[in-house]
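User: I've been going back and forth on whether these two constructs are worth ordering. Before I decide, could you fold them both?

Assistant: Sure. I'll take them in the order you sent them. The first construct and its structure tokens:
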Amino acid sequence: MLSEISEYIDSSLSRSPMRLWHQSRMKYMEGLKPQQMSDWLYKSLLMLQA
């Protein structure tokens, strides 16, 4: 499930100027606890839909 969402984000951002932002976020996410990860992912999906 999480990997599917990540692939969706990767594919959508790979052709967008947010890609560099996404890559820096991925490095940040690696250090997050699971609860923080889900909160961040939720906010990210909201931003992608905006």
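The second construct, handled the same way:
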Amino acid sequence: AARLQAQEIANGRLAMWAAAGLIVQGCQTNQGGVEALASSLSANSF
């Protein structure tokens, strides 16, 4: 049970970092996460 709890905490922390990254990206580009993904895919920037 302790191992599962530690994994859940780690996953939650990773999700918080991901959300913070989306917020920073949105502030810098004035686009939401889905908009940024759509523009990257349509421009074939990968």
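Notes on the second construct follow. The longest helix spans residues 2-29. The chain has a mean pLDDT of 91.
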